Amino acid sequence: MSMVSAALAMQASSTQMQIATTIQASNARMERDTVQTLLGIGQGAPSLANVGAGVGGNLNVTA
Questions:
Q1: DSSP 3-state assignment of 51?
Q2: Measured between alpha carbons, how far is 53 from 58 in angstroms, rounded to an integer?
Q3: CA angle, 8 then 16 then 18, to 5°
Q4: Global pTM?
Q5: Which of 30, 55, 29, 31 is nearest to 46 (CA)?
Q6: Half-sphere exposure (CA, 13 Å, Cβ side) for 57?
Q7: CA 57, chain centre distance (Å)
């Protein structure tokens, strides 16, 4: 009986890990999208790869 309990516990643990991984991936996508929105580089916007040095280095958040 203890073997069955151990197998069920391992399966439950595996399911919990899959759920946690899915939630983490979703949170990472949401954070990426939020940062892109704040920087104004949403989908279809030009890339910031060729801007000069120091662009975006200072952010005034006193408003």
A1: coil
A2: 12
A3: 115
A4: 0.52
A5: 55
A6: 5
A7: 22
